Amino acid sequence: MAAGGGIDPIHQFHIAPIVELKPFGIDLSFTNSTLWMVIVLAVVSAIMIYGSSQRSVVPGRLQSLAEMAYEFVASTMTGVMGKDGLKFFPFVFSLFMFVLASNLLGLIPGSFTVTSQIIVTAALALLVICIVVIYGVVKHGSHFFGLFVPSGVPGWLLPFMVLIEAVSFLSRPVSLSLRLFGNMLAGHIALKVFGGFVVALLGSGAVLSYAIAPLPLLLAVALTALEVLVAVLQAYVFAILTCVYLNDALHPGH
Amino acid sequence: MDPVAAKFIGAGLASLGMGLAAIGVGTIFGNFLSGALRNPSAADGQFPRAFIGAALAEGLGIFAFVVALVLLFVV
């Protein structure tokens, strides 16, 4: 599928092994995806550890960055779940910082976007849903399944409502993972397609095409700005939907 | 019909869903803004809800996008 002058917009998502590791026929290679996950982890750890090591009353740049991230996630969590939701703070904060850092680092030209791989986002979403189900069942027992029985529904309608609620619950991990994956994929493909237009126009050799080649370049710059917004927004959406789902496990029953 | 042509037509039809999801997201933020301008003091508290609604509406558009991509690059 050569779009934009023979440049393959999908090629940037190609996973290439850096160190081949195949013990017992299981592929455990250290790939470029692994490398960028390690980089994301290192960046987040460096910001949080170094930012919280000073502990000055008047925070410096890095400390205010760490404090702002903390305050932002904590206020979002108390807004959705209330005070007792803060016991999930380490989990939601790690998710938010990982998704945010991998979205933003993926925007660096030539880098690899970890969250544009559906296996990564699906694993994160499954982790969220497993924690919701396990915590809900352990904490509330069969009361947790009251989640599927909305109150104030006439009896004849109840089976259908339970079915609809169950399907909507089961589709949560799918939509949670596909939303992040799709947004990242769409943005990076669009950037690559517009970059490909520039190359195709410059390569065609006609005088007119040299004149209009800057237009897709400007659009690519504008799209990059939009992608920064989308990267932050999707990390926020992922975190807040995690809070909403965890709230169902904390306070089930309508 | 030529199967390759049918594939591209299908991908084009699937991308209509993204435009429809855009209508949904626009409705949510438009109504949020009109409510927020009437009562600005209550706007901050409803900000996360607006984003949850927009994310849920946008997710369906993303499904359509994934269908288009699967048609283009996988099938």
Automatic annotation (TrEMBL), chain B:
The chain crosses the membrane at residues 6-29, 50-74. The keyword Transport applies. It is found in: Cell membrane; Membrane. CDD domains: ATP-synt_Fo_c_ATP5G3 (cd18182). The record marks E58 as: Reversibly protonated during proton transport. Belongs to the ATPase C chain family. It comes from Bosea spartocytisi. Residues 9-71 form the V-ATPase proteolipid subunit C-like domain. This is ATP synthase subunit c.
